[in-house]
Amino acid sequence: MQADERFTDATWPASPEKATLEGKNKYLGFWLFLGGETVLFASLFATYLALKDKVPNGDAALAKDLFELPLTFVATMLLLTSSLTSVYAMYHMKNNHFKQMQAWLVITVALGFAFLGLEIYEFNHYVHEFHHTFTSSAFGSAFYTLVGFHGAHVAFGLVWIISLMVRNARRGLNLYNAPKFYVASLYWHFIDVVWVFIFTVVYLMGMVG
Amino acid sequence: MANEQSNSANPNVDLKYRRKKNAEEMKHQVITFTLMIFFTLIAFAAVGIEGFSHWFIKPVILLLAVVQVIFQLYYFMHMKHKGHGTIALFLFSGLAVGLITVLTFVTIVWI
Amino acid sequence: MDIICITFLHSEGHGIDFYVLGLQISGLGTLIAGINFLVTIINMRTPGMTYMRMPLFTWSTFVVSALILFAFPPLTVGLVLMMFDRMFGSNFFDVAAGGNTIIWEHLFWIFGHPEVYILILPAFGIFSEIFATFSRKRLFGYSSMVFATVLIGFLGFMVWAHHMFTTGLGPIANAIFAVATMAIAVPTGIKIFNWIFTMWGGSVKFTVPMLYAVAFIPSFTMGGVTGIMNASAPADYQFHDSYFVVAHFHYVIVGGVVLGLLAGITFYWPKMFGTMLSEKLGKVTFWTFLIGFHLTFFIQHFLGLMGMPRRVFTFLDNQGLNTGNMISTVGAFLMAFAVIVMVINIIMTSAKNEKVGNDPWGDGRTLEWAIPSPPPFYNFKQLPLVRGLDPYWVEKMEGKKEMTPAEPLGDIHMPNSSILPLTISFGLFVAAFGALYNMDDKTWTLPIIIVGLLITFVSMLIRSVKDDHGFHIHKEDLMDDKDKGGKA
């Protein structure tokens, strides 16, 4: 089976991401990578929890002074929704509907950008309103590193999905690029998984005190 | 992870069936998503509404997060499908290592 | 970027930065290689090669790759924290600003302890192959061997704090980690006995690899025994940071890993390069190395108990430490001599270059011995059919000379060569070079970091968007080789 062969709806395999050996390997390898990423983020969470509210003096801002519900809520909704839209994209990929898949990916990317914009606004807000910076305290360093690592993952995911969309815009789906799209969507879900813990552990539990 | 290409003699019958199955799965995904949003709302409400003890809030929102993540993994990332045994093994091993790390960092780091 | 706390640096100069950046990059490479091994082993086994028919070397590679996958991320995080502290003035380890140095110790050892199993498990795998081959008997207790390997990998993540007994984690933590550490002796003991029982009743041939394997058992066991001594937390307060610990880990690393490497090099040399190393010179290397090794490190147990601290390059005169250190030095020279003989051996055999066949030891059991030495770049023309543990041996016992193919002769799909991995890592080198000098407030470093990262990310992008379908070796070209006509 030629990887770049054209398919009709009927010949398109049920699991195009795993129809070739190349695809199977990509798929498994990427899941394993996510297993490693789990440990990476767990270590960052652990560092954050150990250094939470550890500041040099009494004037410095603590977690309960900084975080606000509305901002976190909007960010959470954006990212959760983008997870659903990327599910929709993969649904259309399985049905060999390239146009619809691209459309849902565009929405996913737009939501991702909105989330990233909100995060930049948020960091800016903390720096200017609370003088809570990367270098102001151990708490600051740990907070910006954990949330920033997640933000960097979002940014990387955006570049990744966009380049996939642009690269394949004209040639449509085949068994060579289907695994690539699928793996990118796995990555996007993983970012969302991490965010679920960030909004719970960092923001909500930070506000509770 | 067998090659799931169909061997049906009439591809169009098979196609219809597959389409229907995909659509059904999509419906489940949307239900999952609704539940996730619902859990998120509860978590935010638990923190937003005054009066709950933080001994109550913290475990509850952590539990909600765990349920959400299970939804993400098993529905959105398709781990409920067959052939994810190896993947689950590695993911949960990673999770175990991560949990031990977190446990360590909230107990034995001189704080 | 405000770079402020240069004055707080506890290690002046660029040594620490070099090691942080270097480890970060090579850690990335190790992680990716680990994933590659895992995927290959899970997805691409030949027909009939079930998990429980895999050679022990493959099993240990599999477990080691899993350890890499989970052990390297904590190291990455620890190094990132240190890099941020030194480059961007964050406060992870700055106690005055709320930082905590214990988290570095934890992150390092959460990586560091699995890392020692990452070192030793492949050696265990190599020795398992060697014992079976030169005892001309299947490995004793194969399934318990697999079980022990997996268990060691699993327990390897539960014991890191035994490096930190004197940090003051408290009696409960110390007790838990002490017990977990001692538990590792159980699967390791299983392995030791299995190797001994593999030799028992076998027709043992003492080739150079086998000599290393036999010497490995007592040497490594001595290291294991001192490991148990170190594992008991109260006693460790005495041993900690003394030469006793140095003796312990050299007994497991040199007595285990280095003997494993030397054995593996000798054992697989004909497979890798198509020519046998001289047995005579190999025996010289073996004996001088083994004697030199014990001479160097055995005495260090006593030096440690006499109070000689580790991590200090010299010692005070007239403390009764001179003789012991002298003996140690003599041993080190013996080991150096052994390695020089080995290099001479390699040069001589390469110059002679007497070609050998598929199975130069005569007793090969596993698949690699069924193909030419060195193997063609596509390995097997036709995937072999595996019909049991030690598949090549199984075929030999039925009087066959080669493996039964599992598929007809056909085109072989191969990946293309690519320059991109090199440019990806070159970009990281450039970026790290810039980062290395960033600590000095030099303005030229920032553009260098950016250029380096650009090279890396653009290479990654090209790799992602450029289609690469590989190529096929055609059936006809395969048949051209030697055996025209093929045996499909």
Number of helices of chain B: 3
Q: Kindly report how far apart the N and C termini of chain B lie.
A: 47 Å
Architecture of the largest domain in chain C, according to CATH? Up-down Bundle
Q: Please write the string of helix (H) and strand (E) elements of chain C.
A: HHHHHHHHHHHHEHHEH
Assembly classification: heterotrimer
DSSP, total strands of chain B: 0
At the first level of CATH, the class of the largest domain in chain C is: Mainly Alpha
How much of the sequence lies in strands of chain C comes to under 5%
Mean pLDDT of chain B: 87
Cα radius of gyration of chain C in angstroms: 26 Å
Mean pLDDT of chain C: 93
Characterize the overall form of chain B: flat
Total domains of chain B: 2
Main β-sheet, spatial strand arrangement of chain C:
1-2
The gyration radius over C-alpha positions of chain B equals: 20 Å
Map the helices and strands:
The complex is a heterotrimer of chains A (209), B (111) and C (488).
Chain A: H1 21-51, H2 63-66, H3 69-94, H4 98-130, H5 138-168, H6 178-208
Chain B: H1 11-48, H2 54-76, H3 85-107
Chain C: H1 15-43, H2 56-88, H3 102-135, H4 142-155, H5 171-183, H6 185-199, H7 208-231, H8 233-239, H9 243-273, H10 279-305, H11 322-352, H12 391-397, E1 412-414, H13 420-438, H14 445-465, E2 471-473, H15 475-480
Antiparallel strand pairs in C: 1-2
Helix pairs in contact in C: 1-2, 1-13, 2-3, 2-4, 3-6, 3-7, 3-9, 4-6, 6-7, 7-9, 7-10, 9-10, 10-11, 13-14
Walk me through what this model shows.
- The complex is a heterotrimer of chains A (209), B (111) and C (488).
- Chain A is an all-alpha fold and 209 residues long.
- Chain A has a single domain (16-51, 67-208), classed as Four Helix Bundle (Hemerythrin (Met), subunit A).
- Helices cover 75% and strands 0% of the residues of chain A.
- Chain A has helices spanning 21-51, 63-66, 69-94, 98-130, 138-168, 178-208.
- In chain A, helix 3 (69-94) packs antiparallel against helix 6 (178-208), helix 4 (98-130) runs antiparallel to helix 5 (138-168) and helix 5 (138-168) packs antiparallel against helix 6.
- Chain B is mainly alpha-helical and 111 residues long.
- Chain B folds into two domains: 6-80, no CATH class; 82-111.
- Chain B has helices at residues 11-48, 54-76, 85-107.
- In chain B, helix 1 (11-48) packs antiparallel against helix 2 (54-76).
- In chain B, 28% of the residues are buried.
- Chain C is mainly α and 488 residues long.
- Chain C has two domains: 1-204, Cytochrome c oxidase-like, subunit I domain (Cytochrome C Oxidase, Chain A, Up-down Bundle); 206-352.
- Chain C has helices at residues 15-43, 56-88, 102-135, 142-155, 171-183, 185-199, 208-231, 233-239, 243-273, 279-305, 322-352, 391-397, 420-438, 445-465, 475-480, and strands at 412-414, 471-473.
- In chain C, helix 2 (56-88) packs antiparallel against helix 3 (102-135), helix 3 (102-135) packs parallel to helix 6 (185-199) and helix 10 (279-305) packs antiparallel against helix 11.
- The longest helix of chain C has 34 residues, at 102-135.
- Chain C is globular and about 70 Å long.
- The termini of chain C are far apart.
- The relative contact order of chain C is 0.09.
- The interface between A and B is large, with 56 and 55 residues.
